[in-house]
Write a structure and sequence with these properties.
CATH superfamily of the largest domain in chain B: Immunoglobulins
CATH class of the largest domain in chain A: Alpha Beta
Strand content of chain A: 15-25%
Largest sheet of chain B: 6 strands, antiparallel
Helix content of chain B: 10-25%
Number of domains of chain B: 4
Radius of gyration of chain A: 21 Å
Structural class of chain A: alpha+beta
CATH architecture of the largest domain in chain A: 3-Layer(aba) Sandwich
CATH topology of the largest domain in chain B: Immunoglobulin-like
CATH topology of the largest domain in chain A: D-Maltodextrin-Binding Protein, domain 2
Number of domains of chain A: 2
Helix content of chain A: 40-55%
Structural class of chain B: alpha+beta
Radius of gyration of chain B: 25 Å
Largest sheet of chain A: 8 strands, mixed
Largest interface: A-B, 22 and 29 residues
CATH superfamily of the largest domain in chain A: Periplasmic binding protein-like II
Number of strands of chain B: 32
Number of helices of chain B: 5
CATH architecture of the largest domain in chain B: Sandwich
Distance between the termini of chain A: 28 Å
Number of helices of chain A: 17
Oligomer: heterodimer
Strand content of chain B: 25-35%
Shape of chain B: globular
């Protein structure tokens, strides 16, 4: 259950990657060299609202490039299996940035800067390019990003009552958690969600060197501090439970992904979105992970179909794509210039993600991160649900993470 | 460890609460288009209510007798209610549902109805009142269970800190007694504070800070209280499974289930939800454990049993032979298993088998007939007054 949040974000990221892939290429299809048309296949796992925008834009590349967006539910595993097989692999894929390290180490990705000059990437938000970079090389063309958001039910929590700090949040929870209603709920023992608190204390699950930081003082301090909030939430907080509590009006506020907003609005809720509370102990807001959805190019496609690949990438670099994605699916565009458009600045959800992104931390894109989700989940369960000693649990989790990472080598 | 157990307990409590929420109908959507529906009733019709639904069986309210109307202060003798625009089938009732009109099918529920008697109703779509109806305000239900020494409990409600009151004067809205021991009244969703009082306001709780959501408040003689946003009586009951053997010619049998007499439905709309294939040849459906009444129906609800009362909180085995012919059991009937075996055996009979073999099978099937005696305990509770009400509702609402 703890992986659900991460999986949801991962799925979203995967979907984005797939969509981008669809937009940028049709690598598995043989190039119709005789007619001059090249097919570019892009794997993705995105919702139709996103792919429709991409398909419309990429259709303008016809007849020189025919782009096929192919939805793959098992995209990441499929890529591991066939990424090196030119006959089976796509030309591109649209997915979150956090798997870049895995595929870069497999040697199946082409650097984006081999196709698009690096100076052209300055049009993107810095942290999206940071997320797209693995060991100094940019492997993803960012399309949009997502962060968790602080959202609240205005039936219960007025705009004036929105907590600016975590201590205000705690006081609110103490006053309003009663009778089966909760002042605030979140997936407190899911790493993707707890990471916001850990990052806000200056701790980390995994640093950019691939080193786990579960027993660092900052991480332990975050776990200790966060525990008192978890004590005022339901004991079990998997994805469906937390979202249902909020959607059904049994929780006043939550931290959740932007994907929850359409659902709660449909239910008739007047939902508000606010900046993340500032952690009193550090002066830093809760700093969730940021997932950047973008296009990755497979090395084989970059070598065999360079012109078509570049056309696809350039088509996806337009501001119009970003603004259309924001309008169609509430995606926060990765290109800075999109935020000069009224249609983007007028979108409450997109702008909330933009604000949160200022403190958000790109999800680590190192292969080592694969083991950290499970190990951190166990640590959070031990601390939040089993009441085990923080330091002992953190030491144990750190040792396990180190062992698992060692086993990967 | 204790903490862990506490968390586990909290988890299961949560699950029960969520189950209750998921199970309850939520038919009065907050963003529904609404029309003001006006009614005049005979002088002896007290506290008139409206029960309303559409031709697809979607109910406007959760339970019979529906929503209580409010007197229009600007138009003496007229009561009004804001109905969801889809609900154009209405029954006006009063005196706790003991008197009611026939079903009225309206062109639009933006209408004015004059009830001269239960069977004499006039409807017009031309405005019969002056001014506009008071603005629609969403409300929530406050349930209170008070000590016996507290008579005629009332609800006082307001918005803090601005102090806007929901009701004109202390002691507030009189709460209506229910057969389940709970008193109920409604308050507008702008309030966040309530007081339960009794004996003409001479006894009361202290200020209770609440969320504007359906709430159950238990009050002791000394005014101390506890509250919950889930029905304490229902949250403690686990889901049950209803097993059904339906007549073969009832296609796509469905289950309709509810709690009588409060009328809380387990499913959103008639004919309920389809029964699923279970074990040993039974059809089955899992429902909230608080239901105490069921109907099995088939052929898109065109055939159905009468209201069948069952014990709450127990798995049920229901053998239906016809609309009025059924047996209820709380243990899997032995005969049902034999029937299944017989069915299986019958399927295994081939054309090459002897007539004697066939006779044996037929004999077995006859012994297994649902109409035959059932060894297991059978409890069939006679339909009471509450069921009568439910039947009216169901037949009207279908």
């Amino acid at each position: 259950m703890r992986r659900k949040g991460k999986s949801r974000a991962g799925a979203l990221a995967m979907a984005v990657s797939l969509t981008l892939g669809m937009l940028t290429g049709c690598g598995t299809q043989p190039a119709a060299e005789e007619s001059g048309e090249v097919t570019i296949t892009i794997w993705h796992d995105k919702e139709e609202a996103v792919t429709q925008v991409l398909e419309n834009a990429l259709s303008e590349l016809e007849p020189e490039a025919h782009v096929v967006l192919e939805k793959k539910s098992d995209l990441t595993e499929a890529l591991k299996m066939v990424g090196n097989d030119p006959k089976a692999a796509p030309d591109m894929y649209l997915f979150a940035h956090d798997k870049i390290g895995v595929y870069a180490e497999m040697g199946i990705l082409a650097p984006i800067t081999d196709i698009i000059p690096e100076e052209e990437l300055t049009a993107y938000m810095d942290n999206t390019i940071e997320a797209a970079t693995y060991k100094g090389t940019v492997y993803q063309l960012p399309l949009y990003y997502e962060t968790l958001l602080f959202m609240y039910n205005r039936l219960y929590m007025s705009d004036e009552e929105v907590p600016a700090t975590t201590e205000e949040l705690y006081a609110y929870m103490q006053e309003n958690t009663k009778g089966g209603h909760y002042g605030f709920v979140e997936q407190h023992s899911t790493p993707y969600y707890a990471a916001g608190w850990i990052n806000g204390f200056g701790g980390y699950l995994l640093n950019d060197q691939g080193e786990p930081g579960l027993n660092r003082p900052e991480t332990e301090e975050a776990l200790t501090y966060h525990k008192k909030f978890a004590d005022l939430m339901p004991g079990e907080t998997e994805y469906a439970t937390v979202n249902t509590l909020f959607k059904e009006g049994m929780a006043h506020a939550t931290i959740a992904g932007p994907w929850l907003i359409p659902t709660v609005r449909e239910s008739g809720m007047d939902v508000g979105i606010a900046p993340m509370p500032v952690i009193d102990e550090t002066g830093t807001p809760i700093s969730p992970y940021m997932g950047v959805q973008g296009i990755q190019v497979l090395k084989n496609a970059a070598e065999k179909k360079p012109e078509a690949v570049e056309k696809v990438l350039r088509a996806l670099m337009s501001d119009e794509i970003g603004t259309q994605l924001a309008k169609a699916s509430g995606c926060a565009p990765a290109r800075e210039s999109c935020y000069e458009q009224e249609s983007v600045t007028g979108d409450e959800v997109v702008m909330a993600m933009k604000e949160t992104a200022g403190n958000a931390v790109p999800m680590p894109n190192l292969p080592e991160m694969d083991v950290m989700w499970t190990v951190t989940g166990t640590l959070l369960t031990d601390v939040n649900m089993s009441g085990k000693d923080v330091a002992e649990s953190a030491d144990r989790a750190q040792a396990e993470a180190l062992q698992l990472i060692e086993n990967m080598k | 460890m204790g903490k862990y157990l506490k968390k586990i307990g909290t988890f299961f409590t949560m699950m029960l609460m969520l189950t209750a929420i998921w199970s309850m109908t939520a038919m009065a959507a907050t963003d529904t288009d609404r029309n003001a529906f006006y009614v005049q009733v005979p002088a002896d019709w007290e506290n008139p209510c409206v029960w309303a639904w559409d031709s697809d069986g979607n109910n406007a309210f959760e339970a019979w007798p529906g929503e209580e109307m409010e007197a229009d202060p600007e138009n003496e003798g007229w009561y009004y209610i804001w109905l969801p625009s889809f609900a154009n089938h209405v029954i006006v009732n009063a005196n706790d549902g003991s008197v009611q009109t026939e079903e009225q099918i309206l062109d639009s529920n933006a209408a004015w109805m004059t009830v001269k008697a239960a069977d004499t109703v006039e409807v017009t779509y031309e405005k019969q009142t002056t001014g506009e109806a008071p603005a629609y305000t969403e409300k929530f239900i406050v349930h209170a269970k008070v000590d016996e020494s507290w008579e005629n409990p009332c609800l006082w409600a307001w918005s803090a800190p601005d102090g806007t009151n929901a009701f004109e004067a202390w002691p507030g809205k009189a709460m209506k007694a229910g057969e389940d021991g709970w008193y109920t009244a409604k308050a507008p969703i702008f309030v966040n504070s309530v007081i339960i009082n009794g004996n003409d306001g001479s006894v009361q709780t202290e200020d209770i800070s609440i969320d504007p959501a359906e709430i159950w408040i238990t009050v002791e003689a000394d005014g101390t209280y506890d509250f919950s946003y889930t029905d304490p009586d229902k949250a403690a009951v686990a889901d049950i499974t209803v097993h059904v053997a339906a007549p073969a010619d009832w296609e796509s049998p469905c289950l309709w289930a509810w709690s009588a007499p409060d009328g809380t439905n387990a499913f959103a709309s008639w004919p309920g939800e389809a029964l699923e294939e279970g074990e040993n040849g039974w059809l089955q459906k899992t429902v909230p454990g608080w239901i105490n009444s069921v109907i099995v129906n088939g052929n898109d609800g065109s055939v159905q049993t009468t209201d069948i009362s069952v014990e709450s909180g127990k798995d049920i085995w229901l053998v239906v032979n016809g609309p009025e012919d059924y047996t209820v059991s709380y243990e899997e009937p032995e005969l049902a298993a034999e029937e299944t075996e017989a069915d299986t055996a019958a399927e295994e009979v081939t054309e090459a088998e002897t007539a004697e073999d066939t006779e044996t099978v037929e004999e077995t099937k006859e012994k297994s007939s649902p109409a035959g005696p059932i060894a297991a305990a059978v409890v069939v509770v006679a339909a009471g007054a509450g069921i009568g009400i439910a039947a009216k509702k169901k037949k009207a609402g279908k």
